[in-house]
Amino acid sequence: MVEPSSPALPREAVAAPPRPAFDRRRAWLITVMIVTFMLINYADKSVLGLAAVPIMDELGISNSTYGMVSSSFSLLFSLSGLVVGFVSARMSSRVLLFTMAALWAVAQLPVLVVASVPALVAGRVLLGAAEGPAASMSMHALYKWFPADRRGLPSALQISGAALGMLIAAPVVTWLVTDFGWRSAFVVLAVTSLVWSLVWWRVGHDGPYDEVGASGARTHAPADAALTSTAQERLPYRRLLLNGTVLGSIAAAFGASWALALSHAWLPVYLRTQLDMTPGGAATLISVISGFSLVLLLTVPPLVDRLRRRGCSARWSSGAPQGIAMTVAALAMASFPFVDGREVHLALLALAFGGHAIVFPLHYMTASAVVPPLQRGAVFGIVAATGTLPGLVAPSLTGHLLDSAASPSAGYTHAYLVSAAVMLVCGLVALVAIRPERDAQRLGLPAQAGGSKPLAQ
Fold first, then answer.
1. pTM for the complete prediction?
2. What are the tens digits of pLDDT across the range 147-160?
3. Which of 66, 212, 440, 450 has its CA at a distance of 20 to 30 angstroms from the CA of residue 308?
4. 3-state class of 432 per DSSP?
5. Measured between alpha carbons, how far is 47 from 172 in angstroms, rounded to an integer?
6. Contact, 101 vs 127, CB < 8 A?
7. Is the pLDDT of residue 30 over 50?
8. Cα dihedral 178, 181, 184, 189 sign
9. CA dist., res. 90 & res. 103, Å (int)
10. Given a cut of 70, is residue 454 above it in pLDDT?
11. What is the pLDDT of residues 281-295, one digit of tens each?
12. Does the pLDDT of residue 228 top 70, yes or no?
């Protein structure tokens, strides 16, 4: 009888380790914690935009300066996401997420001590460094609790924390700013982050679909793409990162992050100054857009799971929807500045800033389909780091366009057209490049690193 490790056996014939038991109750408890983590994450990101008008008035800062402050959030955002992605191969997700949330609380303090532009920048830089790995590492932690063919809904819920963050944060933060001053919002968010970190330290252990413990030793049998010997190996990162599926996933994330960064920094200001909305009205519309995103997140990824279980290729079930969503959002972004009817204008605005939401869970699913689990955290970090670079560019560029244009209206139009062009290119790249089955085969990985069977593309 030939041993499984014998070189005479083809890779596909190697016996898989036994599949770990699925602890449904614990898995969904972790999901709730991670959704809450993402809710706080996006509330922290959005607080500056929601409080922008009173902060700009009190500190007397220009559009360009405000854009610079907003962009400073992303100064270390991508770098920290990249670094922590590699660290995740040697450190427990419990420790990583606890540290991030604790730092979020600290990051709110500088502006409470000294209300100034340097204090705002210091707080945003620290917050960005602490939040850079948040989406990728919380997704990585979530994947440790679910087998590959059950990740669509948990992934959607994780990303829905962003929509919930805006859905809940917009009215709550606006109420705090209006009734108690803008500093009160920073205090409440600091306390909330601290409380979450303490609860997570108690309940946030790594799951059975893990590969690496805090010490770096392999602790659990894998349960997804990696149920073969290939999953236990490491592939060169150059090969992983330069295949079309990962590049297409990065492109989709880049386009969606551009729209998201623009939304956080400038959408509240646009609604207040260009559409003459009250603070409450602007908050309500932002909540409506977030609700639209939430509906998409709760319907599309579970549908993707069902399609994959029925044998649909990952390219068409989770790759194509990313490209289509980005393309539609880009066309809406390019259209709404030129529409006169208020209802149509607001509908296109909601599609432009909410229609890209499904990209965030799906781009992780497509990237994970061509990556061994041992390297998943690092690749997630790299994808997140490159995909979120727009946060460093979009807010600042918009501020400069506003200050250099003949009128604020013209400046916003220029900014939205530039954004639409970026999003359209990213959507088309994602639509053409994401082919998980083909790229998994080229890398010598099992047919499905995330649960579906290989089909002709």
1. 0.67
2. 766 777 787 778 77
3. 212
4. helix
5. 10
6. no
7. yes
8. positive
9. 20
10. no
11. 888 888 888 888 888
12. no
Burial class (CB in 10 A: 0-12, 13-18, 19+), 343: exposed
Region 55-61: mean pLDDT is: 89
How would residue 427 be classed by pLDDT, with cut points 50, 70 and 90? very high
Q: Which tokens in the block code for residue 320?
A: 């194509």
CA distances, 142 to each of 34, 67, 369, 401 (Å): 8, 34, 16, 40
- Contact by Cβ (8 Å): 225, 449: yes
Residue 33 CB contacts under 8 Å (≥ 6 apart), including other chains: 196, 199, 200, 203, 204
Would the CA dihedral through 159, 82, 232, 204 be positive or negative?
A: negative
Enumerate residues 6+ apart whose C-beta is below 8 A from 400.
64, 67
Question: How many distinct structural domains can be found in the chain?
Answer: 1
Alpha carbon 368 to its chain's center: 15
| pLDDT (0 to 100) of residue 75 | 82
Kindly state whether residue 286 falls inside one of the protein's structural domains.
Answer: yes
Instruction: Supply the range of the domain harboring residue 272.
Output: 23-206+233-443
Q: Which pLDDT does position 19 carry in this prediction?
A: 55
DSSP secondary structure code for residue 453 in this structure: P
Q: Could you report how far apart the first and last alpha carbons of the chain are, in Å? A: 38
The answer to whether position 264 is within a domain reads: yes
d(CA 253, CA 361): 10
Q: What is d(CA 197, CA 103) in angstroms, rounded to the nearest whole number?
A: 9
CATH for 431:
1.20.1250.20
Helix (H, G, I), strand (E, B) or coil at 404: helix
Q: Are 390 and 258 in contact (CB under 8 A)?
A: yes
How far is residue 456's CA from residue 438's CA, in Å, rounded to a whole number? 9
Contact, 362 vs 304, CB < 8 A?
A: yes
Nearest 5 degrees, angle CA 383-CA 389-CA 394? 145
Work out the average pLDDT over 131-151: 80
DSSP code per residue over 319-341: IHHHHHHHHHHHHHHHHGGG---
Q: What is the pLDDT of residue 447?
A: 54
Per the domain annotation, does 15 fall within a domain? Answer: no
The pLDDT of residue 390: 85
Q: Is residue 83 part of a domain?
A: yes
